[in-house]
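> run fold Leucine-rich repeat-containing protein 2 isoform X2
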Amino acid sequence: MGHKVVVFDISVVRTLWETRVKKHKAWQKKEAERLEKSALEKIKEEWDFVAECRRKGVPQAQYCKNGFVDTNTRLLDKIERNSVARQRSRVKDRDKRSNPFVFELSGAQWKELPDSLKEQTHLKEWHIHSTRIQTIPAYIKLFQAMKILDLPKNQITCLPAEIGRLKNLKELNVSFNHLRSIPPELGDCENLERLDCSGNLDLMELPFELSNLKQVTFVDISANKFSSVPICVLRMCRLQWLDISNNNLSDLPQDIDRLEELQSLLLYKNKLTYLPQAMLNLKKLTLLVVSGDDLVELPTALCDASTPLKFISLMDNPIDKTQCQDMDETIESEQDRQHFDKEFMKAYIEDLREREAVPSYTTKVSFSLQL
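> ok
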């Protein structure tokens, strides 16, 4: 059965989720303050300090005065200076103990990749997130066995042209970085199957050379500044999932039906006023999500009950600003807001998608979220 779902209160539902997140963070802060004042926390701090001193061979006389542990001694500064070095060592040891072909790195203290990484050319996967790393070195071309480059939520400003030398690369995730362009050499990675460039905010186009990526089934370029569907995307003949939501689209190309394998198309938070008739030729399309505020024309057959398509139109009614007046405390930056919004919409749409029976119109949608 085909379904048309018109949601009139998306802003209200989103605000409800934001409120829950805010309450949860407030609880976490309160709990942290309680532990800080707790005697147990003080005892734990002293035990950790003593253990650290013993591990480093610091004489007891230097940190224990008249039977009391002095945790404010300058020895703490010495220990703190070595904390990054210890973490580097732990990362290296963890990688050796776990999968020897997988490299993992996270944390704001990282501004560049460790020097030892250059020697580990046998690696097949990089998982690097939530760091302050801005560049990916050119020596990445040495990693010929690389299959997965998972690099979300860093501060990467550009990708090296040498990335095109990774002939076995299957997944590239550079979401929520600071990219303004994608190197055309990426089109040489002909085995690529998944491409995620979402949340870079200022990305406006993809190079035509990406038309060579005939194995790609998943593309996410949401939360950027695309004014049209990239030509190269229309030539990805095996594409099944396309998320180009939260961009600057005002229309769709008339040859959108070139994407014969497309199953899910997310277009919400754009300025579309109509959907082309060519949409009816996407025979495998089962999920279509748009923002209905500006939409005035669409093929009526899209809502035909005889089709398997679930058509979701989100009507973003304005809400009272007083409901969101404290939002700056929860969302620290535009990129954080976009990431929060994307996670919300992902959960929200998945909830609607999984329902077997959906009313023609709905003004209230309930779903559960675990924080």
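The first helix runs from residue 10 to 37.
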